[in-house]
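Job type: complex structure
Entries:
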Amino acid sequence: MLRFTLRRILQVIPTVVVVALLIFVIFSVVPGTFAASLFADGKRAADPQMIARLNEEFGLNKPLVERFVTYVTDLARFDLGTSFRTRQPVIDLINDRMWASLQLAIAAMVFALVVGVPLGFLAALRPGSVLDTVTMVGAVSGLSMPQFWLGLLLMYLFALQLNWLPSFGYGDGSFRNLILPAVTLGVTPLALLARTTRAGVLDVLNADFIRTAHSKGMSEVKVVRWHVARNALVLIVTTVGLQFGSLIGQAVVIEKLFAWPGIGSLLVDSVAIRDIPVVQGTILVIVLWFLVINTAVDLIYAAIDPRIKQE
Amino acid sequence: MLKRLTLAAMLGLGVATGALAAGERSGGTLVFTAPYGSSFATLDVQASPNTQEEFITQAIHRALYSWDSIQNKPVLELADSEEVSEDGTTHTYHLRKNAVFHNGKPLTADDIVYSYKRIANPKNAFPGASFIANINGADDYIAGKAEEISGLKKIDDNTLEITYTGPINPGFPLMQNTTVIYPSNVEDESSFGKNPVGLGAFVFKEHVPGSQVVVEKFDKYYEEGKPYLDRINIVLMAEDAARDVAFRNKEIDASILGPTQYQAYQGEEGLKDHLLEVAEVYTRNIGFNPAFEPFKDKRVRQAINYAINSPLIIERLVKNKAYPASGWLPISSPAFDKDKAPYAFDPEKAKALLAEAGYADGFEFEVTASPNESWGVPIVEAILPMLKKVGITVKPKPVESSALGEAVTTNNFQAFIWSNLSGPDPLNALRCYHSRTAQSACNYTSYASPEFDKLYDAAVQERDPAKQNDLLRQANNIVQDDAPVWFFNYNKAVMAYQPWIHGLVPNANELAVQPYDEIWIDETAPDSRK
C-alpha cells in the first residue's frame, strides 16, 4: 500500500510540471498585456511611459526564454511570483480566497451526496416506480440546466419571491449566504451521483452473487447492506472524486454570479487583466487540487477493493 | 442651488435627489455596489488607476482637489484657498487646519510633498506619475535624475507652493484617486495596501477579499456635521443579473444599469421614479487608421459618418441609453458645442463622397472590436448592412478588451471600435488629436492637422476659461469635419437607487462614483440599514 501511495504521489509531479509549462506558453502567446489592460475600458488615455515602466518592473520586456527560466526557477522554490495588479505574493491572494472556495466546494458536494446517493439507491431498488422516473427526469434536467440560469432562478425564487435567503455575497461568512451558491453548484454532481448510483446498484442487483445471497435466504436489508452498498461504493467514490476535483474549476461561474469570493472569480478577473502570475498560480492550485483528490480517490479504491492496486 | 446646475447636471433626471435634498438624517448603513469586477486590486489606491478602486477612495481618502458634480468642475478640497501667480504657473495653497488623518496625524504640507514624491517615485512605477508630471521638476524625479521635485515647496506647515510646467488647471490631474494624500508618518508603506489610512470621511474597518470593504464614520472628519452615515458596505457585484435581483430584493441601495435593464426599469412602477441619469464624459467611436489606403481620404471617412444611421442603433440596440455624438467633446464638457449638429444619415451623400474619392465600387475593411454590448461587436454587426448599401464591406475582428488596447496602441488595426475618455477636461481630451501626441499615447488615429494644432496651442496658453473653451470648441469642430473617427454616441450612465437614499449626484466622470459623505438615508429604510 505504501509503494502504491508513493507511486501515485510521484505521478502528480510530472503532471504539474507539464501543466505549468503549458500555462506559461499559452499566456505568452495570447494577445494583450497587463499594462494594456489598465486602459482597456477607455477611461484613460494610454500612457507609453507608464507601460514601459510596468513592463520593465514585471520583466515583461525580457526575452521569452529568460522569463521562462525565471518562472521555472521560482516554481521549483515553490514561489508562485508576485501579482502585477496587487503587487502582493500570489500565494497570499490564493490563501485569501481558498477558504471560501473550499467552503463552497465542500458544501456543494455534501448536498450532492446527501441527496443524490439515497435518491439513486431508492430509484434502483424500485426500478420503474414513480420515484425512479421522477429521480431520473430530475437528474437529466439537473445535468442539462446551465448553472448560470439555475443560479438566477434560485436567486429569484428564494431571495426575491420568498425572501428566505440572501441573494449574493459572503456576508460575515454565515451559512445562509452559502446555501444558494452551494445548491447551484451541487446540482450537477447531485444529478450525476443519482444516475451512477442507480446504475451501479442495478448492476450489482443483477449479479450472480446477489442471486446466490437471496437463494441462501439472506434478508433484503442484509443483501443491500453487505453486498449491494459495498460494491456500488466503488462507482460512487469514482464519481464523487471526479466531481469534487473539478468543482473548484466549475465554481467560476457560480462565484461570479453570487459575488462569492473564491479563487474562481480571482482567476476570471486575473485573466481579463492579464495578471499572468495570478493566472498561472491559480490554475496550478486548481490542477493540484484535482490531482490530490484523484490520488485520494485511487487510494480509497485500493482500500475498498484490493484488486485495484494490483492492477 | 438650482442656478448652479450645469448642462450636465440638468440632463440628470434624478438630479433632484442630490441638489434639493433637505432634512438630512444621521446614522444608518449604506450598501453600495462596486460593479466593475470581482475584486479590488489593492487598497493602496495610489497604485491603481481602475474605477473599481475609486469606490474605496471616495470613502477613505482625499486629494488636494475633488470633483464637484453639481458645478461640473474640480474644486479645492484640502486647501481653504489658493493664490495663483500672474503667469498662472505657481499656486500657493493654504491648507485646511482641521484636516486629520485616521491615524491622528494633522495634515501638513509635508504630507502632500511626501505623497507626490511617493507617486512619482520611479521605483514604484505608479500610474499617477503622469498626473504629477505637470509639476516642475517631476520629470527629472520620475526619471531618477533628481532627489527632490523642484516645483514642490513647503512654506510652512499649512502653506504649500506648487509650480506647474504651464498655466494648466491643476484640479484635473490632482483630483484623481491615484493622487490622494497619505500621511507621512507611517513607517511601512506596504501597510497602505492592507490597512489604508486617509483623510476621508470614513475609516477603513474590514476587507473581505473578493467580497466587500467595510468603512465606518470618522469622528474627526473636517466637514462639520458630516458624514451622515455610520457605516458603508462597499460590496463587489460584477454581474448585471445578480445586481438586478439584489436591488429588487432591497439588499443593495444602488445599482448601475445596462441598456436592457434601463429599458425594463423605465417601464416598472416603483423603479422608474428612482433612476439617476447623466451624460458621461466618454465618446464611443470607430477610429480609422490613415495607414489603410481608403481612410487617407477625408471624404471616405465622412462618407462612413453619413452612411450609418446612428440614432437607429442607439434606439434599437443601445435602448436609448446614449446621446448621439456631434463631435469629440461630449455634452458634459464645458467646451461642448450645442449648436453643432451630428452627421446626418444620408446614404446618397455617402455614395457621392465615395465616388468622388474613387471608391464608387466600395472597399472592404476590418473593425477590431471587443464583445462589449454598447461599443463592441454587436454595434459593428449593426452597421454592416448600412455600409453595405453604400458599397462598403465591414468585417468585425473580435478580440478581448485588453487585446483591443494593445492592438490600437501598436498600430495593429484598420479600424477599431472603442469608448474613450473625452472629458471632463476639454484641454486634456483634445490633446489626443494634437499632431505631437504619439499614437501609442492617445492619438490612436494618428490625426494631424496644422489648423487644429494652432487652435489647440493657443488654448493651452489662454488663461481666460471662456476664451479657452471657445478655442477648444473650434478645434473640436475641425476634428468633427475631418472625421478621423465615426462619431457614434456619448454614454448615458444610469443608476437605480432605493427610495430611502438621498444625496446622490450626477457625476459626469463616472456616475457609479458618489460622494459618500453627502449621502443619507431616511426613516423609510429597512431595519437592516437603520
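Summary: Chain A has a mean pLDDT of 86. The CA atoms of residues 97 and 261 of chain A lie 6 Å apart.
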